[in-house]
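Quick entry, no commentary yet.
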Amino acid sequence: MEKKLCVIGLGYIGLPTAAVFADSGWKVTGIDTNPIVVETLNKGNVHIEENGLEEIVDRVVKNGSLTARMTPVNANVYIIAVPTPHNPDLTANLNYLKSAVRSIIPVIESGNTIIVESTIPPRTMQDVVNPLLIKEGFITGENIHLAHCPERVLPGKILDELVFNNRIVGGLDPISTEVAVDVYRTFVKGNILKTSAENAEMAKLMENTYRDVNIALANELTKISENLNINPLEVISLANEHPRVNIHQPGPGVGGHCLAVDPYFIIEKDPVNSLLISNARKINESMPGFVVEKVKQAIGSNSTVTLFGLAYKGDIDDIRESPALKVYKQLIDCGYSVKPYDPHVKQEQVDFNLYSLEDSLKNSDMVVILTDHSEFKLLDWKQITGLMRNDYVLDTKGCLNKCTLKNYFNYDNLYELKPNTISLTY
């Protein structure tokens, strides 16, 4: 029997997932509500930047293993990989998930398997997804199989990690777990860990919450170290020599669809007992403002600031929840002329002007590095600063390791950036 799979949502997770399944013997139909995405994929092209994705999509589209359309079709397995954004009160907006489930109800049949990969709050499978199916006469574990298998991949390495990372599979019942495990065994080479849907939901959230809390610790250390004239990067390096210590690196904040979002899904379910998680979120959310304060401390609001990087991490084009966008807005609100440059981000992704490298530096007084793109590390920085009106660099990502520029500031020497450090010349 032909293995037919339908993937709902063709974004940063859904498209690579669909492509890998299609390259592993499945007949895959990808579903997206954006007609431009559908048209692009059916031409064998991609609409997102991810290492190796363009090649695999071109291959599976040409051999007929992957097609895209806007409405679901009959399949053996349905994978839902739609986003879970925030409501204004930071609770999870499950409208995309519920819409995706409703969209497949007209085509699912007895014996089908439905897997949700979207990141969701605890008990969403049991309290939200399952009731939608029960209402239509489906009984999980009897005439349908339902499981949660959260994605756990790193942008830039998604194709590799889809195959080699361990996967968590949590069914609403033991039969659903086993059936879903068999689906992923067609290509996953890592271990497949069986559990309940509730445990799978919480495990995914805690993976990213752990990292968010750890980064908050590093960011708090940075603020404390500035006040005490201490080098926080050296402190972290020294502390991490302990065999049971692994402090993460500080930065301008936390971005992406996971770290900046997932902790809130735990907080909304039990705000009374999630105090550490809540405080970590507040610390990391404060970092764009901290960066802006360092700029204000150095140069007046009639100055021009160049932002290097808008993506939330290096060498990708993903700007979701990026702290760089918050830095941009806050600088604009403070009266600065701001010129962003990012070699990976396209103009259509943002609602403000992007600049070329050279244009972003003209008449600039300070470069603020917010993303650790490889391109920034490879630049001739003495030539770069020579193009500027004033040659100051604030590196929030530690891109320029052992930089010898005279007017270079990193988190390791912020205490040297005192008021009036920068004497502007116009």
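second:
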Amino acid sequence: MEEERQVRPMRADAERTARAILEAAESVLSANPAATMEQIAAAAGVARTTVHRRFSSREALIEAMTAWATQQFHDAVTSARPQTAPPLVALYQVTANVLRVKIGWGFAMNAVKPEDSEAARVHANVHDQCDSLFRRLHHTGALRPDTNLAWARRTYYALIHEAAQTQPTDVQDVDELATLVVDTLLTGVGRQPLNPKI
């Protein structure tokens, strides 16, 4: 029992150190993709040997970053309960959650390799959850009856991508961006619907 009590704090400390390294790497590599492991260690406030002990190479560190970011992306969508929460509430929450991940882990998200099977599995699961959410939005009348759901979903993804490029500086900005994305998706930017007969 005594041994178990000693091991748990060490494990928690190791996890905190690994998280600090990953966060430092995201910050440093976002600013300078050619940054060295030494620069990342300095930003994390740990010795270079600590980084090398946990991540055998720069490539291994980036792989760990992409795995972490991918999991955060999945959790961002799932935690919004897109299949059970009221559809409009879920849409806003998914948007805000995903923007936080894309803004906070932009380098890692962009470093995901096409051949990464785990990332592909996660993205497929997220796609299914979003597909279900858009069908629920359509069913409740939040989207027009004639809406092409595949097009609406791709447009939504594009809006999130563009919003993530603005680099907000605090949570309030992310919330405002999420509202802008949802408002643009649901109401557009034109004054009135296009009349094809004109």
